[in-house]
Fold this sequence. Notes:
The chain has 429 residues and is an alpha+beta fold. The chain has helices at 38-54, 66-73, 105-112, 138-152, 167-175, 184-191, 196-219, 226-240, 300-319, 326-330, and strands spanning 60-63, 88-92, 98-101, 121-123, 160-162, 180-182, 244-252, 273-282, 285-286, 289-295, 352-355, 362-366, 383-391, 398-408, 411-414, 425-426.
Amino acid sequence: MPQNLNPTTPAADPRHRWDRPLQAPGHTQVDFEERVDFRRLHAYRLARVRQALAGSGLGGLLLFDQYNIRYVSSTVIGEWARDKLTRWTLLTGNGEPWVWDFGSAARHHRLYSPWIPEKQSLAGLVGLRGAVSPRAGLFERAAQEIKEILKSEGVAGMPLGIDLVEPPFLFALQQAGIEVRDGQQVMLEARMIKSQDELTLLNMAAAMVDGVYQDIFEALKPGVRENEIVALATKRLYEMGSDCVEAINAISGERCSPHPHNFTDRLIRPGDQAFFDIIMSFVGYRTCYYRTFNVGRATPDQIDAYRMAREWMDKAIALIKPGVTTDRIAQAFPRAQDIGFESEMAAFGLNFCHGIGLGLHERPIISRLNSVDDPMELQPGMMFAVETYCPAADGRSAARIEEEVIVTPEGATIITLFPAETLPIANRY
């Protein structure tokens, strides 16, 4: 079907194909369908960062956040690197990405990641979160190397944006005469609008979790432990192609209220309300996807809690469309006091929305805590999760629902498809 070139129609948006259904294709590439084009994905992400950088007043970005590194450079060396601050990337307004990698990974990227200039894929090490003492001089050496690149690319007199950093690296940059500013805001601005390729990967990730919830629904019976459900889901996700199972919450019975955000070895019992959150990634793109079940049977209090959580969910989703501001959506959620909490801070994360992409929490963050005073306008191509939580009147049960939605020109499209309109009862008696 030819691309619609009328600039007044949604299909003319070069980043998206609103004129066709969002795909959830297989993991392989084929010659008879357009699927994910990874080089197009890389070009889009780099262009978004360049655009955000151009309006920031910064000369470049020095990035240690692994999600930012992947977004800019399309390189990754494993989930273990996420919290070690041992890789970094430099991008100036006038150059291509520089990537400092952990030892031999630099040589691997010179062989297999040709979109990074060969001379700009380098081995690097500084502190490993303090394990290497600053006395070794590695921070100062790295700061001087960065200063020389800034000079050669014509931005030495401009501030440098940083997202996350070990304090000795920050001090070394400042001692080298580099003005350091917040670069994370620039990166989150760039990452906010997803391209068609990103939305396809997010949809594929959600489809994987759809399948895992079918497995959980069938396995959920008295005598199964929370950790066994976590093991089942983790195994299945890796079999389906996940590259990282970041966390799975499994919460049942009296543990449901208040929400503890973890799992234990608790035995699941008849009549328990139980909810789960599956946080994992496919080609880096994450899910955050809650579902609540009852085991065998449900009480009126449990059914009422679920009905209320669903009503809050549907009310919020009905508001989602381009041009709507996030304060309106936040006000569709219950006040903290309505669910038994003393403040919005104490209730944060129970009834809110958060962007999802390479990171679990991207823009927009929509809640009564922040959005009423700092609203932003929704745009096509945003993708975020909508989460609701309602404690039951019995004092122990609770319902938790989460839908992932894409903001299209017409409104919200839900991509989390395991049935949640009414309370699912597994292995009904």
